[in-house]
Amino acid sequence: MKAMKHAHKRMYASVVPHQCVVLSVDPGERSGWAIFLRGIDIDSGEVSASSVRVIANIIFSAREIAHARNLPLVLVRERPFGGRMGMNSSGASRVWKAFWDSSGVVKSRSVTVYPSTWRSKVLGRGWGNKPRDVVRPEEQRVAKMIAGMATVGADEAAAICLGRWATHAPEVLRVLPKVRTTKTRRRV
Fold first, then answer.
1. Within-domain flag for 181
2. Residue 80 domain-assigned (yes or no)
3. 87-103: string of b/e by CB count within 10 Å (b at 16+)?
């Protein structure tokens, strides 16, 4: 008898933002980060990957925002591909994940995604596989519109765009707590 494989139910991007707080990170020697609350960018910036105290404070702030609103918190990191000078994205990604795991949050609420995945959804068709130096100006243009800011740093822009993707992504929905619905019986 052949074993039946269970197919995963295909999930699609949500039209409305997920009911959560997203901390999105573009890891690297200089990491961009952004905090989204129910789809709205409320804070963002750039930090050196060696500034461990600042990274811990960013995660703490995101955790406090989520806690104050009784919402789940999700860490979304660009999947490292390595190869950068200094601390590569893989090493920086591990720093963020280590602080995440030690910060008292639900460890399994962490998602990694390749740049091509989020870029093609946020920047549009054709931007997914372009080289980083070509795509950076477009990331900054789109991030300024998302954040409503006049200027954003290059790494900050990537984190803002990544956060926009995450607030609607099925990959994020998979790690959120399942919403239970209760059936009510009608008494006759």
1. no
2. yes
3. bbbebbbebbbebbeeb
Domain coverage including residue 44: 21-175
Q: Model's pTM, two decimal places?
A: 0.86
CATH for 70: 3.30.420.10
- Rg of the chain taking only CA atoms, in angstroms: 18
Residue 50, domain member (yes or no):
yes
Residue whose entry in the numeric block shows the structure tokens 């477009």: 138
pLDDT score for 181: 52
| Angstrom distance (rounded) from CA 65 to CA 58 | 11
Per-residue tokens: 37 = 């609350």
Which two three-digit tokens encode residue 176?
Answer: 């959120």
Name residues whose C-beta falls within 8 Å of residue 92's C-beta, 6 or more positions apart in sequence.
Answer: 27, 28, 29, 31, 49, 80
Burial class (CB in 10 A: 0-12, 13-18, 19+), 185: exposed
Q: pLDDT by residue (tens digit) across 83-104? A: 444 456 678 888 899 999 988 8
Domain count, the chain: 1
Token readout for 151 is 């200027």
Tens digits of per-residue pLDDT, 118-162? Answer: 999 999 999 988 988 999 999 999 999 999 999 999 999 999 999
Residue 14 lies in a domain: no
